[in-house]
Amino acid sequence: MKKGEKILFGVVALLVIITVVNFVVLESVRRHSEKPLFPVLTHFDFSADGLQGYHLYQQSNCYSCHRAVGSGTSMGVSLDGLGSKHDTSYFYNFLKNPEQTYGSRTLDHGAPPKDAAYVASLPDADLHSMAVFLSELKSDQGSSSSFEPPKGESSFIDSMIDMWAPDGWRSQYKDIRDWIKTKSTEEQHDAKH
Ligand code: HEC
Questions:
Q1: Counting atoms of ligand 1 from 1, which one is nearest the CA of 114?
Q2: What is the mean pLDDT of the chain?
Q3: 57 lines ligand 1 (CB under 6 A)
Q4: Fewest CB within 10 angstroms: 50, 84, 98, 193, which?
Q5: Is the pLDDT confidence value at 176 over 90?
Q6: What does the pLDDT read at residue 193?
Q7: What is the torsional sign of CA 160, 36, 33, 16?
């Protein structure tokens, strides 16, 4: 081997070794740590109807595009936490009449030949149970599917607002974080009385 080749192979081998070591370390940390690597910010507590909806969801192949309850794919939208954004009737209407409910063109839900066109023609009772299931997938404060940003001060959010929010927005809109603060002091106040 020429000297250049040796260096090249050496660098590649080193990168492969670093990658393998990193993977092994990260995996063993993940397996042995008590806390999850990323905080889980969604939760669910199914009613009997919701659980029935979950079984129907599994039988109807929704997870071939969606992720929910910790499994599925990421081809479509992740459904975990969506129940904090919409209610049962929204979900039912979406499954039945996707485009009208969405208010814009959809990719997979809708009329044939779209890939999820079969969903709208499932029995009404099934769609209703699945809508209940979806409404019970709740998000916690700070999750990407929650309206409420993470607890506490965040210099990241402050700097993003400074950088991107047009000046007019400050007078036009309220910062939801101020609203959360007043809400929680009011709750403490109420609890004392
Ligand atoms: C072929 C892939 C595919 C399948 C199968 C599929 N979906 Fe979807 N789903 C999507 C995509 C993509 C979107 C985003 C909207 C769109 O463009 O169609 C979506 C959106 C949604 C939404 C979001 C609505 C919102 O307003 O945020 C819900 C709820 C949903 N799907 C439920 C289901 C259920 C329940 C099933 C099974 C009965 C299912 N989907 C099957 C691809 C799929």
A1: 1
A2: 91
A3: yes
A4: 193
A5: no
A6: 66
A7: negative
Q: How far apart are CA 109 and CA 94, in angstroms?
A: 9
Phi-psi region of 54 (alpha: psi -120 to 50; beta: other; left: phi over 0): alpha
Q: Which two tokens stand for residue 132?
A: 């209940």
Query: What residue owns the CA closest to ligand 1's atom 15?
Result: 106
C-alpha neighbours within 13 Å on the C-beta side of residue 90: 11
| Interatomic CA distance for residues 87 and 66, integer angstroms | 18
The best mutation among 57, 65, 82, 91 to test binding of ligand 1, ranked by most ligand atoms within 8 Å of the C-beta, falls on 65
Among the residue ranges 23-32, 107-116, 173-182, the one predicted with the least confidence is 173-182
C-beta of 66 in contact with ligand 1 (< 6 A): yes
- C-beta atoms surrounding 75 within 10 Å: 13
Looking at mean pLDDT, say which of 70-79, 94-103, 171-180 comes out highest: 94-103
Report how far residue 45's alpha carbon sits from residue 52's, in angstroms, rounded to the nearest whole number.
13
d(CA 95, CA 80): 16
Pairwise CA distance, residues 109 & 25, whole Å: 42
